[in-house]
Amino acid sequence: MTARPEIADARRVVVKVGSSSLTTLPGGLDTERLTALVDVLGTARTAGREVVLVSSGAIAAGLAPLGLAGRPRDLATAQAAASVGQLRLVQTYADAFARHGVTVGQVLLTADDLTRRGHYRNAHRTVERLLTLGALPIVNENDTVATEEIRFGDNDRLAALVAHVAQADALVLLSDVDGVYDGDPRSGPASLVDTVREPGDLAAVTLGSASRNGVGTGGMATKVEAAFIAAHAGVPVVVTSTAQAAAALAGEQVGTLFQPMGRRPSARQFWLRYASRPRGRLTLDDGAVEAVRDRHASLLAAGITAVSGEFVADDPVELVGLDGTVVARGLVAYDATELPRLLGHKTGDLPPEYRREVVHRDEMVLVRRRP
């Protein structure tokens, strides 16, 4: 029996690898290390496992071909580097996987593709169909069109979302670090954390936030955040180094294991909690907060004191208390222009067309956090 059967027995696995494991600042892609990873994943495929690869490295791979000495400081140059690098990255993957008889498919996503419900479903269908056809999806953020600031190697959260989109049985987060330590091993004694069963296990741990080689900024803090997202959605996670990828997939006791911390939610509930982008806010009185938070009741117009933001029916909104605490997130049943005249009114006093819940409890997830 393996040390970690939940990983060894996982039929469908999402594997994320960072820029620091695939590239060097002056030389672009490190084909030797990339090929070594592909050999591990190709072996897993031969053994009958399904693999989805979330790979950073597009921008870093484009630096040397464009004669860039370091990370671009402006968005346009970063997008140009991604345009050149993404082609080289995927072609290198395609050639390496072809030696294992594996066809790859490229899936480029932006934040908008996962924050919009329809796009989220489309991403699921695409990944699922690629796997059904025997292809190996390679997922990356579409840095060539991203409008927000581009960060090298920061695909950890994307990998956690993809693990749910792909309905994966396990997630493996690879980088140049062996796992989660209870301190910084570069500055003093530190021990590797073997297993995390709940967030409190890392309460006293200070997590680093910077990559060491200058081509990636996804640090241990982002990996832990991603691991908790997946673990709370019922997916076991291993955080370890790329050199230990084969051992991790075999269920050996390497890196740090995040055990599942909850049952797998529906795609709709997961999307609402982790991927949706709120378009506005509804402020609730104390009675409504109690009803939503403690009884998981639907939100009615009578309990709303204020509305902010621009949204239409079926958009995600945050539900907040009078003190600004975010209580829940849900899909609103009315446009922002309709709601103000409904506030404070009992449902029975409203015209028939406005007697439905403002946010139905089945379209809501509890958040309980400060803004």
TrEMBL record:
Entry keywords, A to Z: Amino-acid biosynthesis, ATP-binding, Cytoplasm, Kinase, Nucleotide-binding, Proline biosynthesis, Transferase
Residues that, per the record, bind substrate: 56, 143, 155
Annotated positions binding ATP: 16, 175-176, 217-223
EC number of this enzyme: 2.7.2.11
GO biological process: L-proline biosynthetic process
InterPro entries named among the record's database cross-references: AceGlu_kinase-like_sf, Asp/Glu/Uridylate_kinase, G5K_ProB, Glu/AcGlu_kinase, Glu_5kinase, Glu_5kinase/COase_Synthase, Glutamate_5-kinase_CS, PUA
Descriptive protein name: Glutamate 5-kinase
